[in-house]
Amino acid sequence: MKTMKLASMPTIKRLPGYLHVVEAAAREGLPYISGTTIAEELELEPIQVRKDLAVTGIIGKPRMGFPVPELIQAINDFLDWNRGHNAIVLGAGHLGSALLGYSEFNRHGLKAVAAIDTDPAVIGTDINGITIAPAEEMAAIIAAHRIEVAVLTVPSGCAQEVTNELVRCGIKAIWNFTNCKIKVPSPVIVQQEDLSSGYAVLSVKLRLQQGQADQPRSGADEETPG
């Protein structure tokens, strides 16, 4: 078995973007793609792209670049997207329902096989081919489907309680979309997705952009003294 190289979180987060560009090249029938082309597409430095791709073990050819099929395989292997992971969604509200319908997860190996909710009006209904089950069935469902990943979209007030139950059921990883900083024992993995933090960055960037637009122009646009 090939030893996986260590990679920083920023590198890992950039790899899906690289994959998107390389898959587009594959659809165009291109046999090779250069690190410079990927960098230009994503507005990055070529040396950063080559450094990031090095963690996958892929080696480019001088003056030709990276072989497209092999690069797609290398990125998918590194991200473990060529291996399936069964998932359960906790909370079938607006966000949970949207995630159940997001086809990109399934394409990259994350397959939602079950969903849980406590709302009697939701239990028994079908969302994208998945029947919403009651909380009492969670342990049996996780065991029956050998589920590794839990996607947490429950109200923040009950997030830790649900997490504790997931840990007891043997869940290996939790993708947390709540505002609650849940606590888990080792070796359970938690990936926190804070949507409000993402919007905060967007909002500040928008304010700065508007502030720059409001700045008075200099040079030729300034009035010339009479």
Automatic annotation (TrEMBL):
Record bears the keyword Methyltransferase: no
Protein residues bound to NAD(+): G91, A92, G93, H94, L95, G96
Organism, as annotated: Alkalispirochaeta sphaeroplastigenens
Keyword Cell division tagged: no
Function, as annotated: Modulates transcription in response to changes in cellular NADH/NAD(+) redox state.
Keyword terms, alphabetized: Cytoplasm, DNA-binding, NAD, Repressor, Transcription, Transcription regulation
GO cellular component: cytoplasm
Highest taxon listed in the record's lineage: Bacteria
Protein name stated in the entry: Redox-sensing transcriptional repressor Rex
Subunit organization: Homodimer.
DNA-binding region per Swiss-Prot/TrEMBL record: 17-56
Short name of any one Pfam family annotated for the protein: Put_DNA-bind_N
Family statement: Belongs to the transcriptional regulatory Rex family.
Annotated GO MF terms: DNA binding; DNA-binding transcription factor activity
Every CoA-binding domain range: 80-181
An annotated GO BP: response to redox state
Location in the cell: Cytoplasm
